[in-house]
Amino acid sequence: MVALVCVFVPAAAMWCALAGVGGAVVVCGVVLRRADRAASRAALALVVLAGMGAVSIAASLAVAGRESAALWDGRVVEATGEVTSSTSVGRDGRLWMEVQLTGIGSPGRIEGVSAPVRIGIDPADGFDLGATVRVKGEAVATDPGERSALVVFASTAAVEVPASGVFAVAAEVRSAFIERSLRMPAPGAGLLPGLAVGDTRAVSTDLNDDMRTSGLSHLTAVSGANCAIVVGAAFWFSALCGAGRRTRVLVAAVVLSGFVILVTPEPSVIRAAVMAGVAMLSVLFGRPSAGAGLLALSAVAILVADPWLASTPGFALSVAASGALILLSPSLTRGLARWMPQPLALAIAVPTAAQLVCGPIIALFAEQQSLIGLVANLLAAPAAPLATIIGLLACLTVPVPALADVLAASAWLPAAWIAQTATITADLPLAQVAVVPGIISAVIVAALSSAVGIMLAGGFRRLPFVRIVAGGVLACTLALGAASVVLDVPLARMTAPDDWAIAACDVGQGDALLVRSSGRVLVIDTGPEPEPLASCLRGLGIDRVDLLVLTHFDLDHVGGVEAVQGRVSVVLHGPPDTRGDERILERLADGGATVTSAAAGARGSLGDASWSVLWPPRRSMAVSAGNDASVVIEVDGGGVPRSLFLGDLSAEAQRMLLRAAHLRGPYPVVKVAHHGSADQDFSLYEGLHPTVALFSVGADNDYGHPRAETLDALETDGARVLRTDEQGRLLIGELEGQLQVWTQKQPP
């Protein structure tokens, strides 16, 4: 708590330090004068106050450097520093790393500053732990409490002094191991380095998303689970060789230290190693009460080294998971051992305990909750230790190629099992649900976790009522989950009419529209987030997308592209504007899609219907990327009423479209441009003469969409207005020349 106060309110750090040191001095006097029970309680208070003072002093000493770095917010800077973490590929395609600054300033004028920063660069080699780097780019200050004082989006980056010593050797060994792993079939090949040494650079975006959805992402990070597996294996092997308890502890400590160096001793790894080492040794010694005290002292020591870790979810999850290993996993092991061998029970109990305890913490800040995380972890639990230990041995034996190949191939099988577990469970209906992060969600998840823990551990035998309540909670949860699945998929498909041709999905403030003819499906934009579009596709029974049109690259039109990634045959897109836009297209291409730039004149078929692109123009009238370069597409025939989808065109671009495409109505269905904003050319709509005007818009938006003047103009022209914010999902079909309309709910 004191650490959180110090990092979020730096001005309070010195006052907390004075309070902690002063209180410790006073209590110390009490301890020296008395020798009764009160003295022992005072000694405990002394330890707490001393820890409080130490953490506060560490925070106050770091404030000056962080404030100096934050002064460069929003400016182009040149910075030098030492890499203090492993690198990982972000969702933006950049290579991200933590760097301890040694200097920062305007290009060519660097001043000495010491502060942690996070740097993103274009993918490159040599940025290993311990390397000294120089970067140039835009700096952005972080929010209070963030561990990094700045985030630097580097335009240029160079390694000034390469990593040396054990860090360089470890980097070479990891690179050779990754190269050897990638010779085997995907997706297990890319996952193996992540399981063995925490290097996730070879994990594909799709698999990474599936691991996160299924609650298995902790296996690819160097978490307490990996460290616990290494400690347990070292302890077991040394015991098998006849070593005494002290020797076993020493061997486990040496092996864990070597593991930390191999996977890069960044702060998160050291934190995980300390926590897992204490927890696992406590379990192995059978002294959970002593382990809890050691865990608390270790947590304080880590916060003294870096108080800003208190504000990171990873620190809270590490402490909670380690506490679960000490206090909960023995009970779960005994409970599971009733149905399976003891070693298997222990292997399953360790990740299960961590999952149950960490769930409520995750609910405090995560907007998504995995409903199949526990099941996925139970399925993956037997394979995780095998992949980690055998993969680690394969990494260490890289200098002996034949042996390394055998071990890598042996480790690939459990890695492939985990990858398939993640892929299959992530594709289950409601594998992940959107939740409102906060206390209420945490309480609900805590109740469910407690019920699962009680039933698995077989506890409270003398209080059967508690077990009955826990069983009731789980039964109700399963019933509600099953009902939700039935409503979301089979019943939703049954209630949707079979003869719809056009659908406007309710995805909030954004566009996601579908056109269907003779079983072929066209999707126009994907909305701001994946789950609303995925739910719409499930409800309509859509498994494959034949043509995806990305009108332009604003987030409310492409943010949900993950919902269709890997299920698209052809992609037509507007002009990309940034490297991030290009990465979206690259991911779609990696998923098997043929990616093509759209321009006026492009045409094709969709089942028995035909489509044609009317905008943007090819050359002379070309517009820059953005709203006015939105792809405008017309679809007609094959059971699809003549329809026009206008993207986010402004009034000026609409006038240009009207002149260039020589549009002539009527168009029975028109998707109104830019969610019905006021920036419309109403002469365009008069010429189109729509029967139905579709507004894809969110109920909660700060833009005032759709604007009253736009609604009035279209209604005056005789169009029926349909809005996703008021009527939910909209379906349109054509029967004997007449439009048929179905809405998900009645408008207010």
Automatic annotation (TrEMBL):
Pfam families xref list: Competence, Lactamase_B
Ranges where the Metallo-beta-lactamase domain occurs: 509-674
Entry annotated with the keyword ATP-binding: no
UniProt main location, coarse: membrane
Alphabetical list of InterPro entries matching this protein: ComA-like_MBL, ComEC_N, Competence_DNA_uptake, Metallo-B-lactamas, RibonucZ/Hydroxyglut_hydro
Keywords, comma-separated and alphabetical: Cell membrane, Membrane, Transmembrane, Transmembrane helix
Name by which UniProt lists this protein: ComEC family competence protein
